[in-house]
Protein 1
Amino acid sequence: MQDFSTRLAKIRKHRKLTQEQLEELSGVSRCQISLYERSDRLPTLQSAIALADALDVSLDWLAGRTTQKG
């Protein structure tokens, strides 16, 4: 099963977004997004929700709890 960092990077790239663009959409800083994608830090619940909303995926999918994106 893919973990949060892998899924975050995968869906961001699939949506053809840079980390800076995702920052603008989610309100989560580019630095934090980079740390999450490298598995150097786990997001707060608030940040994870903001990223899932900005990427139009479910929080469960982003966390690796389901294979259904929506």
Protein 2
Amino acid sequence: QRIDLMEHIDIMITSYGIVRTATNTFQKEEFSCIIIDEAQQIKNAHSQTSKAVKSLKGNEKIALSGTPVENRMAELHSIIVFVLHGYLGTLREIEK
């Protein structure tokens, strides 16, 4: 029997590793706001971490990063896809 802990939580702080390993648990929830720090952690769109974070459902999404993104459109695109899914189109469309 699942105990719905999320029902009683206003703020949750977790790590990328926990999101990655407990993806199925987090995917069952609808968050009002998801804020990720060190957003460069999801710059590789094909990584398990990036896929796990992008699979989260939330009304608002914010990505924070103090680390400059390298000069690769793919890295910037991966972070923007998290925040504004569908806004930029696919990476192939942008790289043309």
Protein 3
Amino acid sequence: MKFRFDVPGMTCGGCARTIVAAIKGVDEQAEIETDVPGRIVSVHSSRDSAPLIAAIKAAGYDARAG
């Protein structure tokens, strides 16, 4: 499934790398694209959105399905 998350606290490449690592911790096979200026994370994953959002939040960032 394809998900789009709004991550308002993602302000730099370091933030994006942290978020990607958090998502990969839930689904190693996830395909992830980050748009730092737009503060958007797009994820293609076989997992449901809830554990992906939980992983982003556990990494210290707010996330909302967009």
Protein 4
Amino acid sequence: MKYDFFEKSKKELFDKNNYVKNYINYMLTKTNELFIYENMPDNIDVKRMEYFLQKNGFVFFTKDNDFNFYNGSIFDFDVYEKPKQINAVLQDRSVKTFNIENDGILICNDFLMNGLEKIYKKYGAMLCECEITLYMNSIINRIQYLINANDDNTKKNADLFIDKIYNGEFSVIGSNAFFDGVEIKGTTTQNNNTQNNIELTQYIKASAFNEIGLNSNFNMKRERLNEKELTLNENAIKPFIENMFNCRLSAIEKINKKYDLNIV
């Protein structure tokens, strides 16, 4: 059975839920390398820990028989909205309640434990709409005329003609009846719409990286950026990624002190 990659890929583009899910996973894969740890206990999967840390906003690091990190739900907040307990999901899918202060260390992705998934969802939804529009524009740009058919047979031939154009094929219709039965009207193509959509797509991609603290310049001027403009963009994106770094640094210092480790 022949696998139709084009039709499968097209369906994936128009499947918005799946598109956003894939975009989130793609971004989490790219940002998984943001932070590097050394001297982590051998049984700790650092890449998997970073994945859940970025995705959910926090993980709970503890030691029972060995060192582990867990996901879960935090609750019982104090007056400063700091969580005091966590219902952690263990390896066997059971749930165990830990006291955060006494039983381990809560590693936060950022100060408010928002994580990155919400950011990726927002930009993934916008990017999906842009790329669908760009795809549709690329098809519409092929159509230079609108065909008005006066009877069913002529419409059938016109539909066949349009289908071949849609599939990127040249088409020739040599029937006099077809030419006698159709009315051709020229269309005004809006080339600037495609250009604007490309710029918007690039802007969304750059904004997603900038919001999480990675420098990705988008040049609205359509010119080279000068050194001052580049520096301005770099300074604007630093606070969030520095907050992420400081949250990890603070947690690692507490882990080292509590369990006599030397993680850096």
